[in-house]
Design a protein that fits this description.
The structure holds two protein chains of two kinds. By secondary structure, chain A is mainly alpha-helical. Chain A is built from 13 helices and four strands. Helices cover about 35% and strands about 20% of the residues of chain B. The chains are: A mainly alpha, B alpha/beta.
Chain lengths: ~325, ~350
Amino acid sequence: MLRFLVRRSLGALVILLVISMVTFELFFAIPQDPARLSCGKVCTPENLALIRHSMGLDESTIMQFWHWFSGIFTGRDYSVGHCDAPCFGYSFVKQEMITDVLLDRFPTTLSLTFGSVVVFLLFGVGTGMLAAHKQGKPADKIASSASLIASSMQIYVAGPLALYVFVYATDWLKQPAYIPITEDPIAWFSGLLVPWIVLSLIWTANYTRMTRSSMVEQLSEDYVRTARAKGMTGRSVFLRFAWRGAMGTIVTVFGIDLGTLLGGAIITETVFGLHGLGELAIRAYFDSDLSMLVGVTLVAATLIVVFNIIVDAAYALIDPRIRLA
Amino acid sequence: MTTLAKPEEAAADRGGSSSSPFLSVRDLSVRFSTEDGVVRAVDNLSFSVEPGTTLGIVGESGSGKSVTNLAVLGLHNPDSTEITGSIRLAGQELVGAPVRELEKLRGNTMAMIFQDPLTALSPFHTIGKQIGETYRKHTGASKKEARDRAIEMLTKVGIPQPTTRVDDYPHQFSGGMRQRAMIAMSLVCNPKLVIADEPTTALDVTVQAQILDLLKDLQQEMGTAIILITHDLGVVAKTAQDIMVMYAGRAVERGTVREVLKNPQHPYTWGLLSSMPSLTGPVDIPLRPVRGTPPSLINLPTGCPFNPRCDHREQVVGGKCTTERPPLAPETGHATACHLSVGQKQSIFIDQIQPRLG
C-alpha cells in the first residue's frame, strides 16, 4: 500500500507538472497582452515596455514558466512585495497574491461541496438502494422517474426557481451567502442551505440512478444467487453481498466527482453569488486575468489527481482482486 | 409444518420404504411471464430422489433442468414466476412455503453446487468466510468454530494447506480448487440433498473426474441424495443411479442408468446418445446431432413437443404425434413419453440405433 501511494504520488507530480506547463503555455499563448490591459488610457510604448518589464513579460516563456514554477516552492519577490511559498503568482488585475485569493475562496467552495455531498450521498445512494430493493414496484418507478426529471434539470433553471420558491416568494430560507463556520455556524448553515439543495438535486438524481443500476446488476450476479442458496437472509444478501459489489462503482465515481466539485461549482456559485473557486475562475476568465486562471486550473487539477489516487487506494480495500503495486 | 426441526427423523423413520421418498416432486409446473408471453419452463414434472442415491437430469439447454432445481430451492424471482404442483422434502411442502422457512432449509438441509465457481463465489469474501457463514447461519456457531469447520471441510475436499488457504479469496484458487471450495461450502451443514448444476462443465477433464469422485465419496460418507444436472451423459453414467431425460420442460424418459443408457426407448434419448462421440468406435464416422433446434417454450409444437425433430413419427398410427401429447408411462420403472408402441421402440433401437452407437 505504501509503495503504491509513493509511486502514485510521484506519478501525480509528473502529471501536475505537465498540466501546469500546458495551462501556462496555453493561457500565455493566446493573443492577450496583460501589460496592455494594465496600461491605462494613455499608453505610450515606453510606458508599455516598463509595465511589461515589471510584470516579467519581456522574458522568454520558458523563463517566465521557470520563475512561476520555482515560485510555487520557494516563494517569489514582486515589485509589490514578497510572495511566500507556495506562490502561484500575482494577479495584476486583482492586485493581489493569487495564493491569498485562492485561500480566501476555497472555504466557500469547500463548504458548498461538503453540504451537498452529505445530501446527495445520503439521499442519492439511499433512494437508489430503495429503488433496487423494490425493483419494478411503484416505489422504484417513482424514484426512477423523479431522478430522471431531476437529472435533466439544469442548475440555472433549478437555482433561480429555488430562490424564488424558498426565498423571495415564501421567505422560508435565507438569501444565499457564505459566512465562515468559525464565525457563526448557524448563519453558515442557513446561508448555504439553498445552494446545497440545488447543487445536490442533480447529483442526488445521478447517484440514485447509478446506485440503482449497479445494485440491480449485482443482484443478478451468480454469487448473489449463491448467497441466497446458502440460506442467507434477504437483508444480508442485499447489504453484505450485492451492496459490497455495487460499492466499487459508487466509490470510484464519487471520488472523481468530489475532486471536480472541490475545484469549484462554476454555475452554482455564479447563480447564488457565492465567491468560491468556480466563481473566481469564471470572473478571471472575463477579466483576462491569466495568471489567476492558471492558479485555479492547477488547484482544480491537483484535487482531481489527488482524489484519483484516493479512489484507487479505496478500491483496493473494497475489492480484494485489485492488487496495489 | 413443525417437521422443520427434525428432517433427519422423518428421513430415518421412512428408512428404505418407498411410501414417501426423501425428495418428491409432483406435477411441478414453472411459468415465467415475460414480455413475449408466458414461458412454460417446466410442465407437469414428477420425480423423486432417495437418500444416498444420485439422480442425473440430462437434456439440452433450455429443457428446464436448472429451472426445476432452482424451484426446489425457491431461488426463482417470485414476482414473475408462477409455480404449481408439489415439492416435498422429507415430508415438508416447499411450494408456497414462507421465505423464512426456505432460508432455514437452504444450505442446511438442501444445498446447491453451481456451474461456474468463479462467478458463483463472492469475490469480496475469503473462502473460509463464505464456507463459515453458511455454518454459522444454520448452527449458530461462533466465528472461531466456523473457521475451524471451514478448514475441516477444505481438508475433506482435498485442498492442500487448508489452514492458510482458508483465508484466500476465490481468485487466488485454481478452477478445480474453486469447485472443491464450492462443494465444501454446500456440504458444510451435511445437507440431505445436494443439487449439483453442471458441477464439472467449467473444468477440464482430469479435474472433472476428481470432482465427480469427490462427490461420490462424500455421498457415501454422508448418505446425501444428489441431483446431478448435466448435458454430459458420460458424467451421468459414471455417477448416477437414476436418469431423467428432459425435453421442453417435461421428462421424456426415466429409469435407472442401466435401463436408459443400455436400452434407451425414446427418440430424443437416441438422438442424445448418437450425438456423443465414442472412444472405441472408428474416428471417421461423423457424429449425428439431433436435427433442428429446441422448441420455443412460449410457443410449443402441438402434440409431442419433440415431433418436429423426430425421425420416427411416421410410424405412429393415426398421426398422434402432432395432436396428442404422450404421457410418461408406465407410472414406475423405466418409462418414456412417446406414442411409439413398446415393440416398435425396441425394434427401432435394436435395428437402427444400437449399431450406430458402436
